[in-house]
Amino acid sequence: QAGLVSPECPEQLLIALEPEAASIYCRKLRLHQLIDLSCKPLAKGLAPEHPIDSSFRQAREQLRRSRHSRTFLVESGMGELWSEMQAGDRYIVADCGGGTVDLTVHQIEKPQGTLKELYKASGGPYGAVGVDLAFEQLLCHIFGADFISTFKAKRPAAWVDLTIAFEARKRAAAPARASALNISLPFSFIDFYRKHRGQNVETALKRSNVNFVKWSSQGMLRMSPEAMSELFQPTISQIIKHIDDLLQKPEVQGIKFLFLVGGFAESPMLQRAVQAAFGSACRVLVPQDVGLTILKGAVLFGLDPTIVRVRRSPLSYGVGVLNKFVEGKHPREKLLVKGGRSWCTDVFERFVTVDQSVALGEVVQRRYCPARPGQRRTIINIYCSASDDALYITDPGVRKCGTVSLELDELGQPSGARREIRATMQFGDTEIKVTAMDISTAKTVRASIDFLSN
Length: 454
Hints:
By secondary structure, the protein is of the alpha+beta class.
């Protein structure tokens, strides 16, 4: 519908999972293109005064000069980091974006250099926007939630200006910072508050008794480093917990590297917290130009989509079918009598279960018969579930994610002849390819399902 590719050539569009793209790019980096947080000891719980030493400054400058070069896409060999990896080494990529944090776990396979996904991609709403929401809650506490709601509705442009001003200060926040952070309040905010409340913002700030936030005569909120740190803590704590929960799983033991990527990974606050939590267990690495990691990795994935050889299915996938009704096994409410035969309706027949390993190109086939003789069309509904024990398509959490409709041409066969439909699902790619074929006529229809959807 977006016109990215023509309907005749849908295979020209590839879908890449963001943390997977980051993983593909990170494995090609050289050591001078990485910041190794684990090499920097914490000083009294704070990051060192110079978070990037002279060698990293030189590397940054070198990377800046070659930023427009495309050599990172066409290098035949792996980077120096690759030389440190052995077959079986495992690493985590934490994609810390604006809205969510997504984690993926890969294992290196040598000598071909392909990747195997060890645990299904997981994530949560722990992105940088959580810090913005914490700032909005602080404003609500100081000036009143009703006023902030009214101001956002009546002065949307000024609200955007305020959020932009906070974004700039948020990026400047660092654990070792000692000076206050000034956030400009738009004049329309100050004026609107005076008209709405009948008092100035300085009075509201004093009455709120908010610690570490003062008013500046230049029309700014002066936030101490402690106040800014409090805004970060809820979001960062959730990210640390999410990574820690993943590390506790049996299939994710022996992690060697933890890559931080995505826009939020640029934050020194997040870097310091991850370093403190996991630096002793594995090497915590941040690529230079971390915000472009996913974009570059997506290009590499497009050049070689077979680089990830084994994935984990994020959901259970199957079809809805009619099975012969078995008394005592199937519930009575699922009984359907047609043509003198008893059927159990709404049966969820799984092709693959959640978190099951699926190799690239792996195919699962099933054979079905039309429900009644002379049927001119068969419709195969495809369902998915986050559970591995769903029995019926009406069970909680089961939803339809696709449909394949196959026209059945009339055959010159006896009316009682058995007719078979072969349903095929091909897994392991970023999309599931579904095929239904009429065995009698070889007529085939195809469909694709987003393998990455939840």
